[in-house]
Amino acid sequence: MHPIRPREGGVNLRFGLLGPVELHRNGRPVPLGTPKQRALLTALLLEPNRVVSIDRLVTAVWDAEPPRFAVANVRTYVNRLRGTIGDGDRLTARQPGYVLAVRDGELDVTEFADALRQGRRSLSAGRPDAALRQLSTALTRWRGAPAEDVPRSAALGPRLDALTEQRCLALEALAEARLMLGEHADAVAELRETVAAHPTRERLWGALMLALYRTGDAAAALAAYGQARAFLAEELGVEPGPELAGLHRGILNRDPALRADPQAPATAAVTAAITATVPAPGRLVGRERELKEVVAAIGAGPPRPVAVHGPAGVGKSALARHAVRTAAPGFPGGVHHVDLRSLPRPGPYETLARLLGRLGLADDEIAADLDDALHQLRTATAARRALVLLDNVTGEEQVRPLLAGCPDCRFVVTSRRMLAALDDVEHLPLAPLADDAAYDLLTRLCGRDRVDRAQAGRVARLCDNLPLALEIAGKRLAARREWTPEAFADMLAGEEHRLDLLTCGDLSVRAAIDLDYQALRRSGGTAGDGALALFHRLGERGLADCGPAAAAGLLGSDRRTASAALGRLADLRLMEPLAPGHYRMNGLTRLYAREIAPTT
């Protein structure tokens, strides 16, 4: 349904939901009446300029069984609200319900969302100074909990919770901007207050730990981790996630990658620690065939690297970790894990140096020359075969010297795109889960008694059947027992909030897609520039499907240039080729593209 454009003219109104519900008319506060009338206004303001059906208004106003004359009562509340607003043209009947016209600059929710979107774009573009201003502006719109003076009905509660989630995301982005700017001392004071209000947000704890460490107070950073761990255990019954635990290990080891780098995003520093043993991979559902293939490829014949590739969130790392753990008994030299995403500048030497460190060499013992370091690796693994997982590789040049220079090691590589330029590699693609596996994953996370196949199927489709998105959805349903799967699916169906909802602690679909977008921004060249422009054009228009002819029209170019741009997007897994001349962006990537598309 297309938004209804409000008419010009009328009195000067100002609506507020980010705190107690409020209305100002011509600069003066207006009493809003009973809680039910405020609930009615809240339901209308959550969907400004759109028709809200009478049935939905009834469920918003009455949490329990509505009274016999609920529809008539809603009409009475609407008439009273129309008089309260004082502009009869603003609240009008429109089948099958009512629409409240809200103009630009009249609703704090819209202003907050716009400023937050601008701040995220600035962060993605590497402009933390602009992001800090925009995110600070966004957060000034908040006066308290959203609609805090309105009873939480089953219809309103999830929508208001989504606004709270957006506020937390803004706070996390603000902390990242401060760390990128080197404002560590300022960030500490701000973050202590923030984590006190949101003690289960692992990204906020990670930002506080990193800020403390960079101000020279490693002891306080380690103490903050202890506090975070205690809160998570008490509130959720879980241990800190791998990102926060990895940061803790990095601080203990004084990892140089945690030092302040104004050019690097704070989230990269938070994930900088790498463990010598492979981290626990978590659940693996619906991947039995793929797991057997990877394990068989690891153990088959002469040493041959195994490369698993697939789009963001498809579960490459989880599959690879399960596979190397399964194959570990056959490697007396041990299993070693290097996550290239956590390296500041992951070239072949940096990857090799980190691997040698995991094999026991001190920093001052690692040769400064790549060939000499490769000799050290061959010597260290000659007597005892080792299995090495190189996770989140972005290009062949990062790993080619290692794969070719150490024949006694077995390598498993994960990457978004297929590393086609590597020689003698077993390539294994990974696709989204089948419907049955998606249902199984959701029910394992939130309980089979809570979700039926129809509800699970709807949630899975909105998650593009991607394991990362499904894991987040399942964990959120498990944590929020008051949310029904049907209500959660309704929330996900609202495209403006879907990426916000698919965030849980250190898990984020948005962050996973952002890695591909950052790679696109760095790609350069004619194809790279065209691909970046095409990604923005598709985002502006909300398009998912595209071919060379349509791409040429969007770019104002010839078909050859457009085909190269589409190919580059496919290489980076931001689009998938479905047939010759037909490419498609999955639903979550399309929403990300719309979110970061430059405004004109």
TrEMBL record:
Molecular function terms from GO: DNA binding
Superkingdom as given in the UniProt entry: Bacteria
UniProt entry keywords in alphabetical sequence: DNA-binding, Transcription, Transcription regulation
Statement: the UniProt record of this protein carries the keyword Transcription: yes
Gene3D superfamilies in UniProt: P-loop containing nucleotide triphosphate hydrolases, Tetratricopeptide repeat domain, Winged helix-like DNA-binding domain superfamily/Winged helix DNA-binding domain
Any one GO BP annotation for this protein: regulation of DNA-templated transcription
Keyword Transport: no
Domain OmpR/PhoB-type: 3-102
SUPFAM superfamilies named among the record's database cross-references: C-terminal effector domain of the bipartite response regulators, P-loop containing nucleoside triphosphate hydrolases, TPR-like
DNA-binding region of this protein: 3-102
Family from the record: Belongs to the AfsR/DnrI/RedD regulatory family.
PANTHER family xrefs: TRANSCRIPTIONAL REGULATOR REDD (PTHR35807:SF1), TRANSCRIPTIONAL REGULATOR REDD-RELATED (PTHR35807)
Name of the protein described by the UniProt record: Transcriptional regulator
Organism name: Microbispora triticiradicis
